[in-house]
């Protein structure tokens, strides 16, 4: 997709010596260098990377951080071969080094994490060329020893932001979060931290689902049993945290807040008509097609779009890029997620307008305003 917003650069990398193929799409840098993670999956395509780069353009604009939108992808089929994976990633990093960090700043995504971000910055030779690095990977150019260190996604900034988005949406819907029943689909990094933070806020988590199955307890899931899942001692379906239910039953639960935190299109034609909730907070990227999202909105469900709710990760990246410590990072995430969620959901409710359309409109206006000022 090409329009007045981008993309500015589409870079294709191929290294025949090792068979590495990758893509970098820098969509828009009006607000700052393009920010977006590197995904390493068997089926990643230039088109997929381009669509994700555009989403990052809107996400970063709406989050109010001086980043543009970008994304990268490496075709990776060598699961388990860490040496080859490092070679792929560092070959890719050296090939796009020219763009970092002035036009592109990398970060973790599907198939990459803090270890890969360490590899990336080692290859580019620039601490600022990627975020999401291990906490002990520090910038040695200036500052005291130990300062300006990495903030890995394992700190839970995305889930932290999702929890605060849920809290703001509940407030605007007139729902007491401490009395709200919450269901979370997906119990990986984002889902587990969303669970932790919502629980700390007083919400009642009544259902969880992951690849092993789903559990439900209308009075709230047992914390001790969930603790065993978080520690890796039990699978969710084996945890005795609640009653084991089918995937179909999960989508029929009459909860206040539903948080899809798993895979793309997890809400689809097969389950959309069962959903009986007041609020959906999209923790995962593209949890449903836009047509289904609009259908649920017209049924009266308040929706916090993905690039609003899950922007905590990229806001954390901005904090790391600036050299802030985790304490300051969490404060920035809370403030910016709350501001964006309140802005989008309030306008959606007031004018009965699809929240995704509201969010994209605001993001575009900010980019166009910056262009007008620099003209």
UniProtKB/TrEMBL annotation:
Binding annotation for substrate: 35, 59, 317
GO: which molecular function terms?
A: glutamate dehydrogenase (NAD+) activity; nucleotide binding
Record keywords: Nucleotide-binding included? yes
Name the site position(s) for Important for catalysis.
109
Read off the SUPFAM superfamilies from this record. Aminoacid dehydrogenase-like, N-terminal domain, NAD(P)-binding Rossmann-fold domains
**What does the record give as the active site?**
71
Annotated residues that bind NAD(+) are located at: 158, 189
In the record, biological process GO terms are: L-glutamate catabolic process
Domain (Glutamate/phenylalanine/leucine/valine/L-tryptophan dehydrogenase C-terminal) ranges: 150-373
Q: Which SMART domains match?
A: ELFV_dehydrog
UniProt keywords, alphabetically: NAD, Nucleotide-binding, Oxidoreductase
The record ties this protein, via PANTHER family, to: GLUTAMATE DEHYDROGENASE, GLUTAMATE DEHYDROGENASE 1, MITOCHONDRIAL
Similarity section: Belongs to the Glu/Leu/Phe/Val dehydrogenases family.
What name appears for this protein in its UniProt entry?
A: Glutamate dehydrogenase
């Amino acid at each position: 997709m090409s329009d007045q917003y981008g993309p500015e650069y589409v870079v294709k990398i191929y290294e025949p010596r090792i068979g590495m193929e990758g893509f970098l799409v820098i969509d828009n840098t009006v607000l700052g260098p393009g920010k977006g993670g590197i995904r390493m999956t068997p089926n990643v395509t230039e088109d997929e990377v381009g669509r994700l780069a555009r989403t990052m353009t809107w996400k970063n604009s709406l989050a109010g951080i001086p980043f543009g939108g970008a994304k990268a992808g490496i075709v990776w089929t060598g699961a388990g071969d860490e040496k080859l994976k490092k070679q792929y990633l560092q070959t890719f990093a050296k090939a796009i080094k020219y763009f970092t960090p002035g036009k592109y700043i990398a970060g973790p995504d599907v198939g990459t994490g803090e270890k890969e971000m360490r590899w990336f910055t080692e290859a580019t030779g620039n601490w600022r060329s990627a975020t999401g690095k291990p906490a002990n990977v520090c910038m040695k150019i200036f500052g005291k020893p130990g300062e300006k260190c990495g903030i890995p996604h394992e700190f839970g900034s995305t889930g932290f932001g999702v929890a605060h988005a849920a809290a703001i949406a509940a407030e605007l819907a007139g729902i007491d979060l401490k009395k709200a029943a919450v269901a979370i689909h997906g119990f990986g990094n984002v889902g587990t931290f969303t669970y932790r933070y919502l629980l700390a806020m007083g919400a009642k988590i009544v259902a969880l689902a992951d690849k092993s199955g789903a559990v439900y307890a209308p009075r709230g899931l047992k914390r001790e049993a969930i603790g065993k899942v978080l520690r890796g001692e039990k699978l969710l379906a084996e945890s005795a945290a609640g009653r084991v239910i089918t995937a179909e039953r999960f989508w029929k639960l009459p909860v206040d807040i539903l948080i899809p935190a798993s895979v793309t299109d997890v809400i689809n034609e097969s389950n959309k008509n069962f959903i009986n909730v007041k609020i959906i907070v999209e923790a995962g990227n593209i949890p449903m097609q836009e047509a289904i999202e609009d259908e649920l909105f017209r049924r009266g469900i308040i929706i916090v779009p993905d690039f609003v709710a899950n922007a905590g990760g990229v806001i954390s990246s901005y904090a790391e890029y600036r050299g802030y410590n985790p304490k300051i990072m969490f404060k920035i995430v809370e403030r910016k997620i709350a501001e964006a969620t309140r802005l989008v959901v309030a306008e959606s409710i007031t004018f009965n307008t699809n929240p995704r359309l509201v969010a994209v409109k605001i993001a575009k206006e900010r980019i166009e305003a910056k262009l007008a000022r620099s003209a």
